[in-house]
Specification:
The protein is α/β, with parallel strands linked by helices. The chain is 39% helix and 9% strand. It is globular, with a radius of gyration of 25 Å.
């Protein structure tokens, strides 16, 4: 049996096994295998929820005050966190420890309890239920356990650093007292701790099976020596199992590391040099940050894919509320945003999706204030500016969604404190997330920041500083002024401004600096570990395991 975590990965695993002549090996997800066992031993299990969001949205609407607008995704992630640790509504509050739920614990307990009640009443199961029921079946039924042991003799688990307690409990029952286990993983890429995953199971295997044969995958077939050398500088702080990576590709361009670099300008420069837009990716820490680049890429005429402000909770709810409304866009949008829970000051103790929703609401209010016109024109302008490019153009993704993918060019903006590492994040996991972002690049890599430089830049050996403020007539606050109507646009208004653009790294125009310097003058020059620019840095003595 070969196990992995997604249907897509299982399909790829089956194709590789077939190419190796091992078509008889069954490749499956944990959930699919669990469901097959449940149906074999206990019959039909009822309808399986493809998503928790719909059920949780109905429950969330019963919460008091602004809590009813909290994204169902945050509530779903919290329930998955609990169930992957084998917690129930009865044990949830007692086992929270230092963990902070996305809403007050008493409300989250109420949501969890009601979710389980409604799910049972409607005869539904979620994916965690499949695993938990199978664990209980095998724990309590010796004959079923013996039958599984007879049929399933040997196991391979891919991406083993992503296993959680519930999955590990099931694997242990499948394995029994045997040691026929092959585990493949990279603890440097363990970035799903918020779901309950832990690389500890992977790292503990040599102790659990002292006779195990350890094969180190230390050749990279993806990245150039220059990309790897920069990523390797994080290795001394990644911990875990030390690995030394050997590049197999010829030399490429040096990574670009510097403050205030213009991401859109770099994309245009690479594209002008012959690199397809589809071979580039801009990777950000949170979904809230993607809209900044959606806006900038639209204004720069750069197609993009993979992100959409309009598909996220804040915009969907706001656009629904705007139907049939009339009046000045700025006034109506602000009124509705406040009704939907827009906070003047966003506290740190929020779930990531709620942080994204708050940032999106604030951006929608700002866009409405900049738009000089009525509601219908504002809605039309949103669809024009933030509509996706039909599956073509630059990939705009979060770092988590980029795991397992690769591009010729990767651009990492906003590598700064409060963003990467994110506030309230696990610093060790945030460092691994940064490493994952760096190692998505095949040849071209850019790292830049706007605010207080991330501590991770120090670990790269970069003498980082915040970018200088633009001077003279180029100085413009990050908050753009209300746009003035241009031409004869009528009541539908225009989404244009006569003010110089803000200093955001997303902008598609070169920015003027003191003494006449421009952002482009900093382009494509690396920093040495000492902080000086050079193209001849040597690699450190230790380096990471293959990103495979």
């Amino acid at each position: 049996m070969a196990f992995t975590f997604t249907g897509k990965a299982a399909g790829e695993l089956r194709a590789r096994l077939g190419a190796l002549g091992a078509g008889g090996v069954r490749a499956s997800t944990f959930h699919s295998a669990a469901l097959a066992l449940l149906r074999h031993f206990e019959g039909d299990q009822g309808r399986i929820l493809s998503t928790k969001a719909l059920l949780l949205r109905r429950i969330g609407n019963t919460l008091p005050g602004a809590f009813r607008f909290r994204p169902a995704g945050d509530l779903a992630t919290e329930i998955e966190w609990a169930k992957n640790r084998r917690l129930t509504p009865d044990t949830y509050c007692d086992r929270l420890g230092d963990h902070e739920p996305p809403i007050p614990a008493d409300l989250m307990h109420r949501v969890f309890r009601e979710y389980e009640r409604r799910k049972a009443a409607e005869g539904l199961l979620d994916f965690e239920d499949l695993l938990e029921r199978t664990v209980r079946l095998l724990e309590g039924d010796e004959e079923a356990r013996a039958a599984v042991h007879e049929r399933w003799r040997a196991f391979t688990v891919d991406e083993y650093q992503d296993v959680n307690l519930l999955q590990q409990s099931l694997l242990d029952l499948w394995l029994g007292e045997r040691d026929e286990l092959c585990a493949v993983g990279d603890d440097y890429q363990a970035i799903y701790g918020f779901t309950g995953a832990s690389a500890g199971w992977l790292l503990a295997l040599p102790r659990r099976f002292p006779h195990a044969h350890v094969v180190r995958l230390e050749r990279s077939y993806r990245s150039t020596p220059q990309v790897l050398e920069l990523a390797n500088r994080l290795v001394p702080r990644l911990g875990g199992s030390a690995k030394t990576l050997a590049p197999t590709l010829p030399d490429g361009p040096e990574p670009v590391v510097g403050p205030g670099l213009d991401v859109a300008a770099q994309v245009r420069e690479l594209h002008a040099g012959g690199l397809p837009l589809e071979e580039m990716a801009v990777l950000v820490r949170t979904n809230a940050r993607t809209s900044e680049f959606e806006e900038a890429f639209h204004e720069a005429g750069i197609p993009f894919q993979g992100a959409s402000l309009l598909a996220r909770d804040a915009a969907r709810q706001l656009l629904k509320a705007l139907r049939g409304r009339q009046g000045p866009a700025a006034e109506v949008v602000r009124e509705l945003a406040v009704r939907q829970g827009l906070l003047a000051e966003v506290p740190e103790k929020l779930g990531e999706r709620e942080q994204t929703r708050q940032a999106d609401l604030a951006r929608l209010v700002r866009l409405a204030e900049e738009f000089d016109g009525e509601i219908d024109g504002f809605v039309e302008s949103l669809h024009e500016r933030f509509g996706e490019s039909a599956g073509r153009g630059v990939h705009l993704l979060t770092l988590h969604r980029a795991k397992g993918l690769e591009w010729e060019a990767v651009l990492l903006p906003r590598v700064e404190e409060g963003e990467l590492p994110v506030r309230r994040g696990d610093v060790e996991e945030e460092r691994r997330l940064f490493y994952v972002g760096l190692t998505r690049a095949k040849r071209h890599l850019l790292v830049t920041w706007e605010g207080r430089p991330s501590r991770f830049l120090d670990e790269l050996g970069v003498r980082a500083a915040a970018p200088p403020l633009p001077s003279g007539s180029d100085r413009c606050s990050n908050r753009r002024p209300r746009c003035r109507r241009s031409g004869s646009g009528g009541s539908r208004g225009h989404a244009r401004t006569r003010c110089p653009r803000s200093s955001s790294s997303a902008t598609g125009r070169s920015r003027s600096w003191p003494h006449g310097r421009r952002t482009r003058s900093r382009s494509w020059r690396p920093y040495r570990a000492s902080g000086r620019r050079s193209s001849s840095d040597t690699a450190p003595s230790s380096s990471p395991g293959s990103p495979r």
